[in-house]
Design goal:
Layout (H helix, E strand, L loop, with lengths): L2 H10 L5 H11 L13 H10 L6 E7 L5 E6 L5 E8 L5 E4 L3 E2 L17 E2 L2 H12 L6 E4 L9 H14 L6 E5 L3 H9 L5 E5 L5 H7 L2 H4 L2 H15 L3 E7 L7 H10 L5 E7 L11 H13 L4 E3 L13 H7 L1
Parallel strand pairs: 4-7, 7-8, 8-9, 9-10, 10-11, 11-12
Antiparallel strand pairs: 1-2, 2-3, 3-4, 5-6
Helix pairs in contact: 4-5, 6-9, 10-11
Bound molecules: iron/sulfur cluster.
The site of iron/sulfur cluster has 12 residues, from loops.
Length: about 325
């Protein structure tokens, strides 16, 4: 919800200062309409209904996977496309993957969002509205910033959203921010008071290959990125999650696994191997190759798991739905 607009309307109506907090409490608990906010005067509820929409976003399309994953394509008020995904796990976890930007200024070659034109940074309200969309359906307990955009390039708004996520039932410990290695952003997370998890999208174990896949590596090469991760670890005393998307014949060879193992201190990193949702440029590695890669990491005592794929049948990878809609 547009909190600035809410404050303006409440101020204009001469309402006491605590009203904004009352409204937010209802919204954060998943209220779907002002009518539910029974501690607000009826006339005020009617006025807010007309003047302050409960969300800054409108739903353009929604896709549902057989595994329970729901992916929603939204438009911002100025017509920018963004996506968010609700992932439902068998153990009861409900995790929402949110976008931090419409499009992305970076151009990672394996990513559908990277092929879209960059729109703009999202506001904290627009980030929260993605999570709130699903909160209205059911309780949620995890949020990951792994949707469209590079969150640490919009770090003020991302952190402002994180501050309010606990109101929705998502603690900071259950919030993860994923970066492609934007060093100033990693340092900012290391310094921040909230115990937010850091995920590093590494995807290649050497600078040559990484620069081919991710242009950002020319700006922040591997050694600088890993040094920033070490600063985060020293300060937060938490492991860093390393994301590694498995591209057939590109970064999934045994020598890549050995190189990766040599880069990472087994005590400080946990690797997530991500089966690839093909977006055209690459094929995904077979389950056998992924397992071979994982086994080599394990031989070197680097903990690694293969990420459960969610929503494969609905183009659930970052940017796929928006890219399709724009085509
Ligand atoms: S992977 Fe992330 S940083 Fe790279 S283009 Fe896609 S959204 Fe941007």
């Amino acid at each position: 919800m547009d909190t600035q607009r809410l404050n303006e309307v409440l101020g204009d109506a001469g309402e006491p200062a605590y009203r904004a907090a009352q409204v937010w409490e209802w919204v954060a608990k998943g209220a779907a309409e002002y009518g539910e906010m029974t501690n607000l005067p009826a006339a005020l509820r009617e006025r807010l209904e007309v003047e302050v929409p409960l969300s800054t976003l409108s739903v353009c399309a929604e896709a549902r996977s057989d595994d329970g994953t729901v992916k929603t394509l939204f438009n911002t008020a100025d017509g920018r496309p963004i996506e968010a995904v609700l992932m439902r796990y068998r153990d009861g976890r409900r995790s929402v993957c949110v976008s931090s930007q419409s499009g992305c200024p970076l151009t990672c070659t394996f990513c559908a969002t990277g092929k879209m034109k960059f729109g703009r940074n999202l506001s904290a309200d627009e980030i929260l509205d993605q999570a709130l969309h699903f909160r209205r359906v059911e309780p949620i307990d995890h949020v990951v910033f792994m949707g469209m955009g590079e969150p640490t390039m919009n770090v003020d708004n991302v952190l402002a959203a994180c501050e309010r996520l606990p109101d929705l039932g998502v603690t900071n410990r259950r919030t993860a921010i994923s970066t492609v290695g934007w060093v100033p952003g990693i340092d900012r997370l290391a310094e921040c008071e909230m115990p937010i998890a850091l995920a590093l999208s590494l995807h290649a174990p050497n600078d040559g290959l990484r620069s081919q896949l991710m242009a950002v590596n020319d700006r922040f090469p591997l050694a600088e990125v890993l040094a920033a991760c070490e600063r985060y670890r020293a300060r937060r005393r938490r492991k860093v999650f390393v994301e590694y998307v498995m591209l057939d014949g590109v970064n999934d060879l045994p020598e890549h696994a050995r190189e990766l193992a040599a880069l990472l201190d087994p005590r400080g990193y946990k690797v997530n191997l991500i089966p690839y949702n093909p977006t055209g440029a690459y094929d995904g590695s077979s389950p056998e190759r992924i397992e071979r890669f994982r086994a080599i990491l394990a031989e070197h005592r680097v903990p690694a798991t293969v990420r459960l794929t969610r929503g494969r049948d609905i183009d659930a990878a970052c940017g796929q739905l928006a890219a399709k809609a724009a085509a």
